[in-house]
Every structure is written in C-alpha cells, then in structure tokens.
Amino acid sequence: METKLILAPMQGLCDDVMRDLLTRIGGFDECVSEFVRITHTVHSRSTWLRHVPEIATHNRTFAGTPCTVQILGSDANMMAINALEAVRFGANKIDVNFGCPAPTVNKHKGGAILLQEPDLVYQIVKTLRDRLPEHIPLTAKMRLGYENKDLALENAQAIAAGGAAVLTVHARTKVEGYEPPAHWAWVRKIQQVIDIPVVANGDVFTLDDFIGIRRESGCEHIMLGRGAVMRPDLARQIRQFERGETIQIAEFNHEIMNWIRLFFDLCMAKESNNKYPVARLKQWLGMMKKVYPEATQLFDKIRILKESEQVHTVLQDFQAA
Ligand SMILES: Cc1cc2nc3c(=O)[nH]c(=O)nc-3n(C[C@H](O)[C@H](O)[C@H](O)COP(=O)(O)O)c2cc1C
C-alpha cells in the first residue's frame, strides 16, 4: 500500500491559499480545512464557502487534491445539523477535531478538552455517523490526551466505535502543546487497539523524520503540519523517496522564490484591499527562516513594509539579484 500524505489542518496558517500552493507543489494525497467552529448557530452557505472555498470546486484544490471539511464543537446535535448543511452545500467528507489546545476553544468545551470525556467523544462521533449520509466519510483527529495520556486508548476506541473511518493522531497531549518530541510510539499503541486506519502526525520536518515516524508508529499514512509550510517541497521529497525516484530538493532562489511569488499573487487575488497578502507572506517567511537562510534575508527586506506594491517589487528584485 502506498503511503498517503495528508496536509494538516492549521488554523490561521494553512488557509485555502496555502493549501492551494502546497498541493500544487505536489506530494499530497489529501488536505484538511482549518476547523470550522460549531456553536449554537447553523452556518450559512457563505460561511462554509468562506472557511472552505474548495467546497465550491468539488472539494478539491486547484491542483485537484481532495480537501476535507473539519468541524470542531461539543454539541453533537448542532454538529450534525451543521455537518449536514455543509454536505448540502457540497462537502463530501467531514473530519472532527478533538485536538485543538486553544484556551478560548477549550473554555467552550471544544477541541482537546473533550479528550477528558471519552463518552462524549463517542457520542459526537456516533451522532455524526448516524446522521450523515452513508457515502460521506467521517474521520477524526485527536491528541494523546489533555493533561496526560491515561485516556488515549479509550478515546481512540470511542472514536472507532462511534463509526469514524480513519483516525489521525497528533502524538502529543494538550499540555505538551507543540513541544518536541512527538510520541510516535504511542500512535502504534493506538493502532494496536483499533481496527480503523490510523494516520500518524507530529514533528515531521524532514525526510528522515518521515522515515522515523513510519518506523516508530508503524503507520502507513502520515500527516504533515508545520514541516510542510517550513519546507514546501517536503511532501514532494517524501513522495519521490517512496517511489524510488531521484529526490529533487527545491532551491530557494529558483523554485521556492517562484512559489513565494505565486503565493503572494494568490493572496492578492483573494484579498488585495487589506493587510492580508503582506501579513501572510511575513508569516510564511517567518517560518521558512528556520530552514532557509535566504528566507531571513528576504524577511528582513520586507519586515517594515506595509504596502503590497512595495513587497511585490522587493520580491521581483530579490529573485533577479
Ligand atoms: C498554527 C496551527 C494551527 C492549527 N490548527 C489546527 C486545526 O485547525 N485543526 C486541527 O485538527 N489541528 C490543528 N493544528 C494541529 C496540526 O494539524 C498538527 O496536528 C500539529 O501541528 C502537529 O503536526 P506538526 O508537528 O507536523 O506540525 C494546528 C497547528 C498549528 C501549528
């Protein structure tokens, strides 16, 4: 079985433009939207399309990569009502978030805090599974726990028993935040107690990390988060490795600069009348600085700029230099 590589949902970081860009670069089999929070209201079509524009294009990114809609909440009934609406507007796969560590979200009983209540986790998954049409796959994503890992297996079993088709495990607890290490061996323990496929996730920043997570988790399928943003050709490298092809490593001044300029153009096409394109580019370069020294140089050149036109010129000059 060929590994499935999935681009992680990342609120505020991996929006539709970033998903578009990264899936164009290649290597990904699927991506997942940022979470859409479900409270006491029923979202309109325009809300769904704002969060997940791919719904309007057969749930695929420009490159044709399938995109799953992720929801987050704690009221099983409202989640089902909203998920059904998303499906009515075109969504064809729903993922449930049991991992978000954000205090505001947890305060309203959403995300990782639910991992303290496996019964509720079960009820949410079961309700969604019962109410969604059979042909709509339902998946879930969890952390290893909230404060500790005591309930990790129980939660995974609750998700499987509730009827999820696939479970992604971000191999850390809520209190571990994003601190390394991710506990890849725990994902193996989870896979051993449930019979649905488990996707391993956490701290894959390089091809070697990919080889490590595969070995330690025993999972076929891997989700890439921050590493895919920091090293935009990571999934492509992994795919080429898996296929025994020559691994093509992107050079900053060639491919990566082209992607940066494309990303900026795509951001401009989405929202040109506000800070969005410049802010998104700074955020991305800020992450790429950890991998590419050139990203630091470029970041320093645009750091104080606010106008898109100025940034556009800097990008052009930087690549030409
Ligand atoms: C900025 C940011 C936003 C995130 N937003 C979401 C989200 O909306 N839904 C979700 O399930 N996980 C979210 N996550 C968690 C990631 O999907 C992933 O599980 C985590 O980053 C670990 O993978 P990594 O080490 O490869 O980054 C987010 C992570 C980051 C860094």
Automatic annotation (TrEMBL):
It catalyses: 5,6-dihydrouridine(16) in tRNA + NADP(+) = uridine(16) in tRNA + NADPH + H(+); 5,6-dihydrouridine(16) in tRNA + NAD(+) = uridine(16) in tRNA + NADH + H(+). Its EC number is 1.3.1.-. Keywords: Flavoprotein, FMN, NADP, Nucleotide-binding, Oxidoreductase, RNA-binding, tRNA processing, tRNA-binding. One of its GO terms (molecular function) is tRNA binding. The record marks 37, 97, 178, 280, 282, 303 as: Interacts with tRNA. It comes from the Bacteria. Residues 6-290 form the DUS-like FMN-binding domain. Its cofactor is FMN. The keyword NADP applies. Pfam families: Dus. The active site is at 100 (proton donor). Belongs to the dus family. Catalyzes the synthesis of 5,6-dihydrouridine (D), a modified base found in the D-loop of most tRNAs, via the reduction of the C5-C6 double bond in target uridines. Specifically modifies U16 in tRNAs. This is tRNA-dihydrouridine(16) synthase. It comes from Alysiella crassa.
